[in-house]
Design goal:
By secondary structure, this protein is an alpha/beta fold. Helix content is 50%, strand content 11%. It binds nicotinamide-adenine-dinucleotide. The site of nicotinamide-adenine-dinucleotide (NAD) has 28 residues, from helix 5, strand 6, helix 7 and helix 11.
Length: 374
């Protein structure tokens, strides 16, 4: 077995850590920045607080970002970065503002639009990137420590990740207090995204030892704390443990990437508007059972180390978690009505990430899965 591991993001973790953001801006030599944030964080006053901690160095903010950010959102953000002459940016929010900011920062010093890089293959150049500090407010995507930005090109109807070493944030400031206001439904969806990162990176054909141990640590935390964070939103310990799980799962999938559930999540979100984590969770229990059948003992071991009798018991727990937290369980619940829609969903699920799945799957296998959960 050979492997390479790299994780260059400086992580600052803990309640109250956002107050230290000024020091981190000093470290990267930032003088004039843009705050990229979700409208929720702008409206609830958290954005203003962060600006204060940035010590008067935020010259503009940008919040015109929809969930599952579009390439148009990124191009607008790039325009603001260029017009402001920004030499750094702070991203505040869930995966959507962080991914938008990350892609915008990667090309800000150049002159091009993001579509050239996202689906047309132009490599990101470190010379065109400006440094970014990521401040996550959900415990889910791990975007604060990955070099991945998942973007939707509305003209092409494609949601797909782009990634490049130049896209790593310079620092991540992870303050669990920021997640106390996350509504239960978003807590559930983002928490299940963490679980999908942990489980999928573990069984990815690109798995490797450092990431494997992170997968296990993160999955254990999710099984122990997610439902508590969902039922007791003010429980700071549960929030802290989920924030920890989110980062560690981010490290887990940063190199091995994800597999079947993430491949299928893209069309479930794009065509039916299912939030990202909930979309991953729709097929996660199915994939656990399916991959366990072709298992060489690794998934079985993982399930036992998470406290389950076997992989099937772990899959049952995922099903139960989804049910208890009101997540979509069937295609009909999200509005899939006709047989042709299953055909289309299957076609769009044949994403390159499927190649990372430990059991090789073709069109008929994926269609069979959708038939089983219709
Ligand atoms: P999100 O960023 O879209 O946020 C979901 C909702 O929660 C929004 O309405 C937002 O305003 C609200 N919200 C966020 N923080 C809040 C807070 N503290 N209090 C109250 N409301 C809050 O959701 P997400 O799941 O964090 O991110 C999803 C996006 O990230 C998707 O586009 C997905 O594809 C992408 N993603 C990226 C990576 C990566 O490595 N870059 C990994 C997984 C997913």
């Amino acid at each position: 077995m050979t492997w390479d591991f790299s994780m260059p993001v400086k992580i600052h973790f803990g309640c109250g850590k956002t107050r230290e953001i000024g020091k981190i801006i000093d470290e990267i030599g930032g003088k004039r920045g843009v705050l990229v944030l979700s409208k929720t964080l702008k409206n609830n006053g958290v954005g203003e607080k962060i600006k204060e901690y940035c010590g008067g160095r935020i010259a503009a903010d940008f919040c015109d970002i929809r969930p599952n950010p579009t390439t148009d959102n990124v191009n607008e953000c790039v325009r603001v970065l260029r017009e402001t002459g920004a030499d750094f940016a702070v991203a505040l929010g869930g995966g959507s503002p962080m991914d938008c900011c990350k892609a915008a920062c990667a090309i800000a010093k150049g002159e091009d639009i993001i579509e050239s890089y996202h689906t047309m293959g132009k490599p990101v150049s470190a010379d065109e990137a400006i440094p970014m500090i990521a401040v996550p407010t959900t415990s889910g995507t791990g975007s604060e420590i990955t070099n991945i930005s998942v973007l939707t090109d509305m003209k092409k109807g494609i949601k797909t990740p782009m990634n490049d070493p130049a896209m790593y944030p310079k620092a991540a400031v992870v303050d669990p207090e920021l997640t106390l206001s996350v509504p239960p439904k978003v807590t559930a969806s983002t928490g299940l995204d963490v679980l999908a990162h942990a489980v999928e990176s573990y069984w990815s054909v690109l798995h490797q030892p450092i990431c494997e141990s992170c997968s296990l640590h993160a999955a254990r935390l999710v099984f122990r704390w997610l439902y508590k964070a969902y039922t007791e939103p003010d429980n700071i310990t549960a929030r802290e443990k989920m924030a920890e799980a989110s980062i560690i799962a981010g490290v887990a999938f940063s190199n091995p990437r994800t597999t079947g559930s993430h491949a299928c999540s893209f069309p479930l979100t794009n065509l039916y508007g299912v939030p990202h984590g909930e979309a991953c969770a729709m097929t996660l229990d199915y994939f656990i059972r399916l991959n366990a059948k072709g298992d060489d003992g690794r998934i079985e071991c993982f399930a036992r180390d998470c406290g389950f009798a076997d992989a099937y018991a772990m899959a049952d727990e995922v099903t139960e978690l989804k049910r208890k937290m009101g997540m979509a369980m069937t295609l009909s619940q999200i509005g899939v009505k006709a047989e042709e829609e299953i055909e289309e969903l299957t076609r769009l699920s044949m994403h390159p990430l499927l190649k990372n799945n430990p059991v090789k799957l073709d069109f008929d296998d994926i269609k069979k899965m959708y038939e089983a959960i219709k």
